[in-house]
Specification:
Blueprint: H1 3-11, H2 17-43, H3 80-84, H4 102-115, H5 117-120, H6 129-132, H7 144-147, H8 151-160, H9 174-190, H10 200-211
Helix pairs in contact: 4-9, 8-9
Bound molecules: heme C.
Length: 223
């Protein structure tokens, strides 16, 4: 066995040297001839290339302009409550425009942790890692001003952006923005429940943690 065929067998162990020679001699030229023939037929047919010149249409362009008010399939978005968080009255919606379910909250939890917690923190206190590294600190979600905002406000902030926070419309679908808004409400509730309304085991945990306060790092605090 020559060095060449041995190295060939190393990279292509099933190739027997003699069989490979036959394939190379017959199959390869044949497939080239057939392949090129097919391609030429498709290639040479009459067609208009995108944005090329036209002698047929009056404006001299092959690409046809869209008829006025054309909307891409799936992008009609006439439902303002769903896609802008705005009620017919013109103010923010106060209720979720999609059905609330445990699955929706879990999805919102996951999306919040991915897209929002880097700045807002997993608890929504505004002390996420990016903030600890110097980005502007947003308000905690657990202040009265934000507890009183209608749910449409949170959808609007995610859709339009807010001050230094950019819009998340291109990264998070409307459905997921509502899931996050619903989770945000749950998060707010989790930090603001009258102790008497908690189940007994949670009240017990609360009493224990009150004795041993949890350490929360502030931005810039050395590790
Ligand atoms: C890169 C950091 C960053 C990320 C990620 C981020 N935010 Fe923000 N967010 C901010 C900052 C900073 C502000 C305050 C902006 C300002 O005042 O200029 C803010 C403001 C807000 C406000 C308005 C609060 C107010 O004071 O009225 C809401 C609501 C909010 N963010 C929700 C979200 C949600 C929900 C997500 C995830 C989809 C998210 N943010 C992702 C940085 C971020």
């Amino acid at each position: 066995m020559s060095t060449r065929s041995r190295s060939l067998r190393r990279f292509w162990p099933c190739a027997h040297p003699r069989r490979f020679a036959w394939e190379r001699g017959v199959l390869l030229p044949l497939s080239l001839v057939l392949g090129v023939g097919c391609r030429q037929e498709m290639y040479d047919q009459a067609k208009a290339k995108p944005l090329s010149e036209s002698t047929f249409f009056a404006n001299g362009q092959n690409a046809r302009p869209l008829p006025p008010d054309t909307v891409a399939r799936g992008f009609l978005r006439e439902d303002k409550a769903m896609y802008a968080g705005i009620a017919p009255s013109g103010s923010f919606v106060t209720e979720l425009p999609i059905p609330l379910s445990r699955a929706l909250l879990e999805r919102g939890h996951e999306r919040f942790d991915i897209f929002c917690s880097p700045c807002h923190g997993k608890q929504g206190n505004g002390l996420g890692m990016i903030v600890q590294r110097g980005f502007k600190q947003p308000s905690s979600f657990h202040v009265d001003r934000l507890r009183q905002q209608p749910i449409g406000y949170f959808f609007d902030v995610m859709t339009q952006g807010f001050g230094q926070m950019s819009s998340y419309a291109s990264q998070v679908t409307p459905q997921d923005r509502w899931a996050i808004a619903a989770y945000l409400r749950a998060l707010q509730l989790s930090q603001h429940v009258p102790a008497a309304e908690l189940p007994p085991e949670d009240r017990q945990k609360l009493a224990q943690s009150a004795r041993k306060p949890e350490h929360r790092p502030s931005p810039g605090e050395p590790k």
